[in-house]
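User: quick one, fold this
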Amino acid sequence: MLLTEIAPPRFDVDLDLRYATADNLTGRPIYHRALCLLHPDAASALARAVVLARGIGCRLRVYDGFRPAEAQWRLWQVLPDPQFIADPRQGSSHSRGVAVDLTLLDAEDRPLEMGTGFDDMTPQSHHGRTDLPALIQRHRACLLGIMVAAGWTSYPYEWWHYQLPAAGRYPLLSDSVTGGKLLTT
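Assistant:
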């Protein structure tokens, strides 16, 4: 299975691949390389989202895409909470290459305020919260509208997570699809 690399200039996105850094919920890098990959179907849907975001003067910042099954286990070991981390025994849509974590940037490439940071595993990260300031609710709704119009579905507990419909029909993938070059040891 060939995955599509998500990177400029082919994809007009800003990459901030948090799992290639210590700035993530584990406190250490999970990925050896800052490389964003997606299944070709997901890459096509992301390309549609890029166009829709551009139409309102925004860009997308991508935090994560394909996550090898081995990396899913590493996240599960740190936070074994199925509300926020998919149980690796069932598989994650990220480990199928059909999920993306992202946010919106304004015309000056500044992230829009979303009320919480990426990977903030608290109820404040849930979609549809009415106890957040109106501007934050609008930003989340704008991201949701772009992504749904581009063919993605949302995950109710994480404003940043989107996946293709029927993600389970795609096979789980390991780091072997990258030649073993993505994960840290």
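User: anything notable?
Assistant: The CA atoms of residues 101 and 161 lie 5 Å apart.
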